[in-house]
Amino acid sequence: MSKTKQEYRIWAKATRKQFNIEYISNIICRKIQDLEEYHKAKNIAGFYPYDNEIDIKPLFQDLSKNWFLPVVIDKENMIFCPYETCSELILNKFGIYEPCKGKEVNINELDMIVIPALSVDENGNRLGYGKGYYDRFLAKLPQQCIKIVPILDELIVKNLPHNQYDIPVDLIVTQSGVYNF
Asked: Per-residue pLDDT for 29 more than 70?
C-alpha cells in the first residue's frame, strides 16, 4: 500500500533532521550557481529556510540578481516582494520569515523560482506542507520561468501522490547532482 501525502510529510521532516543541512546547503547552492539557467536569470523568487529546509540564503549575496521572497497575504495566496541583504524580515503566522510587504513583483518578470519542498519524485512532482500556496502561485507563472527545488538526495522518491493542482518542477538540485524534467 502506498503512503499518503501526510505520511510522506512526516517521513520527510524526520529524515532531513538526520543531516548536516548547513554543509549540504552549501554544496547545493554551489550547484545552483553553476547552472546555465541561474547565470541567465536576473529576477529570482526564493524562500527563507524554515524547519531544516535547504538554506539558500548564500545565493542572496549575488548582487547581480534581484531576489524576491514570499509574503502570505491571505489563507490562499502569497505574493513575492523584493529582498535585499539589509532588508528587515518579519515572522509570519506560520513562523516563516518574510520581507515587510513591499512592491509585489510582476510574475511575468520572474526568470526563475527556487521552491522549498519536503520531498520530490522522479517525475518532478513536489510535496509541500499541504496548504497549496506554492501550487497556486506556480500555476500563474509563465512557462519560461524555471522552477527549481533544492533538496537532499535522500528525499527523492519514485512516485509521490499528486493531483491536477500539483505543479511539477523543471529541475531538482541535490548534493550529488542536478535532475532535469
From this structure: yes
- Which runs of E-coded beta strand occur in the chain? 43-45, 66-72, 78-83, 89-91, 97-99, 112-114, 119-121, 126-127, 146-150, 156-157, 171-173, 178-180
Amino acid at 62: D
Burial of 95 (0-12, 13-18, 19+ CB in 10 A): exposed
Grid coordinates standing for 86?
Answer: 539589509
Enter the pTM of the model.
Answer: 0.93
All structural domains of the chain, each given as residue ranges with its CATH number in brackets, are: 5-175 (3.40.50.10420)
* Tens-place pLDDT, residues 99-138: 876 788 999 999 999 999 999 999 999 999 988 899 999 9
Could you give the 3-state DSSP secondary structure of residue 11? Answer: helix
Amino acid type, 142 = P
